[in-house]
Design goal:
There is one protein chain. The protein has helices spanning 27-30, 40-53, 76-84, 153-167, 186-195; strands at 4-5, 8-15, 58-65, 88-97, 101-109, 115-120, 129-135, 142-148, 173-178, 217-221, 226-232, 243-248, 254-255. The chain is an alpha+beta fold. It has one domain (9-250): 4-Layer Sandwich (Deoxyribonuclease I, Chain A), CATH 3.60.10.10. A six-stranded mixed sheet has the order 4-5-3-2-12-11. A five-stranded mixed sheet has the order 6-7-8-9-10, with no helix packed on it. Strands 1-13 form a two-stranded antiparallel sheet.
Length: 258
Amino acid sequence: MTARALDRLRLVSFNIQAGTSTANYREYVTRSWRQVLPNNQRVANLDAIAELVADYDIVGLQEVDCGSLRSGFVNQAKYIASHAGFPWWTHQANRKVGVIAHAGNGVLSRYVPNKVDPHRLPGAIPGRGALVLKYGTGVGALWLVVLHLALGRRARRQQLRYVAHLVDRHPHVVVMGDLNTGPDSREVTEFCQRAGLVVPRSDLPTFPSWHPQRAIDHILVSPKLEVASMGVLDTTLSDHLPLVMELALPASVSLDRP
């Protein structure tokens, strides 16, 4: 199908913790084995995640397992895309720990991007990445970045400066992911200034999922993209809550269906 103008675009950003749920801080220790070994609960979680995101247009995933021992050698982005009925998907494999774990980012989409670029993010400890997708062409193109930032402030600042350089020339940009820092932090404020983006809402805590107190998952957008609605989904399928957004797109923005 050829490109056509869209009215609305529904987005999800979700750190899925490799398909593992966590009910409290204690479980990081008492159930730590689930981070390295396959288990039936992980498959049930992936099925539930697929059902949760099935009604959305584009899903950005962080902490997907790209196929290792802990996931039963299942590519989790592919699995969720297949079970949720997404016609297009991709993944970016980042941090690999032998055969035990292989973490990365993923995108599930009902539209086909014209370009996909995986980027290794700078930092003293390797293993962080950003997926950059371009939907459409020319001034009507929509640029989407899905990323998972480092825990340290210095590394996050380096990583966000790198990403800002990738998108600061484009009028329609969405950056989504687990930034591991709040919306009012110095690094996010600097990033928005450099990249020409805005924080639509700063009052949506996403972590920990069982008692959300910290807003560390974000969807940042260009001012030309109108945010019709934004919120979190109440679920304990991960230690993060999924962040959702509905965009009202300009008439100049068009995307291709498969």
